[in-house]
Amino acid sequence: MDATAIAANGWRFDALCAGPAHGELVLLLHGFPQTAHSWRRVAPALARAGYRAVAPNLRGVSPGARPEQRDAYAIPQLVADVLAIGDALGAQRFHLVGHDWGGALAWQVAARHPDRLRSLAVASTPHPLAFRRALEDLSTDQAQRSGYMAIFRTEGAGEDMWLGRGSAGLSELYAAAGLSAEEAAPCVAAFSERAVLTAFLNWYRAGDPADPTAGPVRTPTLYVWSSGDPALGREAAEWTRDYVLGDYRFEIFEGVDHWIPEHAADRLAALLLDHLAKRS
To answer: What is d(CA 51, CA 117) in angstroms, rounded to the nearest whole number?
Structure first.
């Protein structure tokens, strides 16, 4: 993938891109605590099929898009970034793919601006209303799975959790979460800088992946959930169907952990290519 920079919404986003400039745009949104590099095993397959795959480093991760104010990371601003990146790349309508927080953001874009999307694909993260429902339903263990969010939302506590033992400790956290040293290297390089970590933690402090104000989605949608995900349970994944009113495909990757773009890249790419071809 090639490195580029995108001027959008008053900011400058670093990005990785692959594929012909004239191809239909596929925006790939990374999650926390990751960078655009999380898509480097998926994007080449999209590029070979003729799509323009672009993975930006999102607000807080890109040095040129890192405001200090916590409120600057609220969902409306994040949604505006995605639309502006599409505009900057000359795409009135585009395909949108997201993982983890990038998936939560993708759901929000689809719910708020369906006219801008050709298709939606999300890995791991359930629709925000399904997520909220699972958090509030005591018959599920989702509240327990999501307990880490309280730490992330506490100023200083999230930073200390990740950086309390420096870069070496950060590397160990990624290893414990299941990423290899090679997979984690771009993340360690980015989030060893406390300002970058704080900026991305502000997504949790100013917003919510289970935002109850999200509406249903009518965009043709592919949703992929993995049974080995420790943070996101089956109930919210299955209940997502209730909040997608258009064409919908739900796929379960049995035994795969949270890191779907890294650890099931070929399978995810094949599903994406089938999904995109039907909406091109």
So the answer is: 15
